[in-house]
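Q: Protein A?
A:
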Amino acid sequence: MKKKKRVRISKTKNKKYKKLSKSWKLFIVSFFLIISLASAYLFFKAYHYINDIPEAQNITQEEIYLLTKIEKTDTRLIRALKNNAFESWLYEANDEKVKQLSKNEALLLEVMKGKTAISDIDATMVNLKKHIDIIEDEDIEELYIMYYKSVLPRQYDKLRDIFQEATVTDAEEMSKDAQELLDLLNKIYNQEGMLTVTSEQSFKKSVSLLDEINDNIIEANNIKNQVYSYRNLVEAIPAPNTKFGMELSEYIDSANNYLQSKTMEEEFKRKYSELQSNLETNEKLIKKSVDMPDLVGMTVREAKKEMNQLNLNLSIQGYTNTTYKNGETVPDDIRDMESWDRDEKDKILKQEPSSQTYKFIVKGSTIQVVVENQPIAKKAFSSESSSSSTSSSTSTSISSTTSETTSPSTEETTESSD
């Protein structure tokens, strides 16, 4: 009995075991299948990731050391860039910054050495700050200073060489290069924090060079405008002071010679017209003129007769006689001009204008004469002399027609006679 029971028990266990082993087999197969698929997927992704990178991802410690090694010539920003890449590899086990180190260093050096185009510098600065995490605002300002200090001397030397070789015909083309330097100077001057750059000698020399070029262009343009309108010149073109102006000296001389000829021609015409006018005037005066009479030595009566015939006026002034009535000589110190005593027998001592000086006189003019008054009694003379000394030497005009002296008419007659 016991034997049979054992057989039954073993059969039941065997059935259960068979059922359990089938489930495990199915589980194990499924598990390995999932692991295989996952491994295949990860391998596929890794394969594509590796293929997307042109260079090998692995980098040796030696390469890292060489890339991040600080050189004596490295600037503050380059050193900071290398230190940041090395610390990222050392503490974060990330070699990405080390791999990008050469590229970023090249970008910084390109700016520092002024190799970036002036038109691209602002965009380059924005790009640097965006992609290099160590770049701050103060670093951007430092980069701008280093860039301007590098690029400005080259721009100055370039324009200076162009200006030295340029002629006045190259002025328009050269002005474009000058405008580039001017734009750069304005950009530096108006940018905040660039005081160290504006204090540089290269900045001051650039300003002076632009002033000199501007003076050359302005003077050359002024000379061209004056030469082109040479017919309208009213004064000579001054001697040039600039390089471009001196190149136009030949044109200046031609324009000035034309102006001189024109001025001489106009002056000749003016003088010729004036001469014609004078000739006409003189001709008219000659027709109205008479010979200048010589009245000296004549009596007043004789002179009046002569003057009436010539249609001239006579103005008479007396002068103290040399003797008194008693025959005594009158002292010279009391002889002087005095009123005419109205004696027509008095002789004329002097006339003005003189016949020795002028040959003709216009009709109607007045001749002034001085006559010697008749002798007076000594006593009477003294009283009369006293009274005459207080008078204003009044002259009496006697003529057929009373008029005032007209010296200018006499002078005109003289000019016509000449």
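Q: Protein B?
A:
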Amino acid sequence: MAVNEIGACEGKSIYILDLGVFAEEHGIPQCSYTDVKIDPGNGIPYLLDHPRFKIEQGLPYALAQHSGPWHLREAITGSKYVTTDMDKADIVYVYDHCYYMLWLAQVHSIGRKLPEEVSPAGEWLMPLYYSMLNTTRWQRQNGADFVFYDPHPGFTDGTVESAYYKLLCDDFQHAMHIVVERGQRNICQAYWEISKKLMIVPYVPGSSDSTKPLLDFEQPILPLEERQTLLFFRATCLPLMYMYPNNTRITTGKVMRHDVALALGKSGPNVDVMCTDKEFGGRFMPFAKVMQRMSSTLFCLVLPGDSASARRTSEIFMAGCIPVFLGPPFGSMPLAEEGGIDYKASSLFFNVTEYRGWIDDDMVWEIPRDKRPSHVCNPWVWIPDIPVTDVVVQIRTVDELMDHLRTIPRSVLDQKLEAVMAQRQKFSFQPYVTSPPSAINIILSRMCSVGSNTPAPGLALEAAGAAAV
């Protein structure tokens, strides 16, 4: 149900700064969502001429897994909090999403560029950001009342990579950052400043019916006694490798997925844990089938992938399956802090002490104060986003997991399922404010709470000095 009120936003106004307004002065083409098509299998954007699938087979843009910024823009536009006066706005939402998605489509269609190669859409984004920095509105509070929404874990492409991260980590450090995993900003030396207004959100989940995006959230939850499968996991496991000079990055999460599938895949007739890669003897499973299998399963594994975040976390909640976080490294936990998702109540946590089969690094259990990972793919800081030491179960090897899952009391299972049901709507995305609250409601509330009237440290000192005079 659409509503039009967010308590934290009452009395505040939000301006949407579409970076396309600066395009003409730089001779940059205007961006359009019709320049990309969305893969029906995974919700990822591709260029229109890519042969992977036909344009007419593509998903509606609202179901792209990285379309969260679009949903937020639409919700703000249709709310009573939107303003057309940037100078008087309490909050400025930076809308770079169209060019960002075009860049992502180029990466998926053509491949990533080496550091010395030009990335077209990336090259377009940089001057647009610089024009934003030159506005008097940005300079008023050094961007402290601006909000950025970065829906993909890594902008690592071509000659713009270092310049992009310089902006992100230094120039934008006082702004609010909405991301899909902590590692997107943990790489910044200014992480502890950024973390004050950092929000970790879900990916936009898929849908069994593209004409009814909320259909899966509205499906009744299958009673525990009617579930035929004990444990389910289905995803790609083939690791990606980013080969840069003197810096080879292997996606550890995919290696872990493969090892887990090997350890658990034959651990019982009611265990369905497999990789979908044909190289590993797997095959693609349509989304509707995945949802059907998860909804009839008691436990669903939450594992990291190329990075710590994965869309499947949202879909596990959507299906009404009890999440099982297995690590290290651990998958991202969106809305664990800002959105009130009670993962301890809804999920199970298992820590494998013999993890050297998939990770060489020594894991840490809290974010270091003075040491930053060099890249979002560094897994040694993929830790739970909330403390779980009081509930995590220690196991030596992966195959010990099943004995624990098979002996959990029914009363505990009932409590977990009740918590999943109570929170699953928070993983949904709609292009308007809803009741009960969706991810968009929660994001807007957080924006209005921390994104306005928060001057950067230097400007706060200046204001205090002026007041003293």
